[in-house]
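Lay summary. Proteins are chains of building blocks that fold into shapes, and those shapes determine what they do. In this project we predict the shape from the chain. Here is one chain we studied, written as its sequence of building blocks.
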Amino acid sequence: MKQTDTTDPVLPMASAWISGSDAPELKEIRVGFMPLTDCASLIIAHVMKYDEKYGIKIIPSREVSWANVRDKLINGELHAAHVLYGLIYGVHLGIGGQKKDMSVLMNLNNNGQGITLSNQLKKRGVTGGAALKNLLDSERRDYTFAQTFPTGTHAMWLYYWLACNGIHPLNDVSIITLPPPQMVSNMRMDSVDGFCAGEPWNNCAIYEKAGFTVATTQDIWPDHPEKVLGCTAEFAKKYPNSARALIMAVLEASKYIDDMANRRKVSEIIAGKAYIDCPVEVIDQRMEGKYEDGLGRKWNDAHCLKFCGDGAVNFPYLSDGMWFLTQHRRWGLLKQDPDYLAVAKEINQIELYKQAASQVKIAVPEDVMRTSRLMDGTIWNGHDPQGYAASFEIRA
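And here is the predicted shape, written in a compact code that computers can read:
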């Protein structure tokens, strides 16, 4: 990653942010989260008091669904949240609900989601995408797959994976929305045949002998963007010092978590009833990059959950946000092409992030775009979003 020089910060030392004109306007910040492993940086920022270092106090709020997170952000019950990247973009454009100007303060993590198929499918000989395609072609039965929010990351990963295997997600299967913690119970009850969600729920399906991991999302896009620290544009504009302090606290926590020696301790903290409420070993196995798929294969994943990567994870690349817009367009959630770059510039608070990163000595890339190769060989770099969105053979 190309980096700018952060040895001479453009702003004073961190202590200046908690006094005088740079003092946080709002001292207590209500931050929502869903019970997922990738909420860790927000929880650690709170538990280890990185927030207090920057003159704020994070009040964590465990939420029951992504729709609940959306509604509470819009109505002001939450100031910010651990939230799906695509949800923020969807609300900003008014897709499927109330339109509200939104902001992405930073990326929280890369990787760490998965697609799980049921053991009932395994009994039918389905252990991969090609076998699933063959089964769907040979049977008239309606198979049901779950994602966590219509414009969210998990819906887009699920659709992308199905389409790469020749399965049209809108025509060939039924798609429903479920909160992440309900995925495994619905699979046990045979209500869903597969799902895409964040950890630890994919590993939990293996632990409870309900399903197996057919693909990780890092198989689809290595080091892909995932959750963000999101808020309304109004919050970022009204309380810029508080927003900056929140970013700094979460960056400190992100650095702590990215030290693999700390991962077990982090897993023990977030496993508690107030956070994920899940056995520690179910969280920690994949948190440490130790994967098994429930079919007998085990591996150490080089693209497991990443929380910092010296800033490569956290920088709110414009191209990341634009990619979700291309998929919203691909699947008919957007009826026409937006001004992809302009929307991303409105939402992603790059300057605010840079100010925060300079204070905690986190490197900042020179380019607001990045280039990635996805599982089908497609290259995404943000340079022709309209052409990219229209290039897929399988689309709405």
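What the prediction tells us: The longest strand covers residues 28-33.
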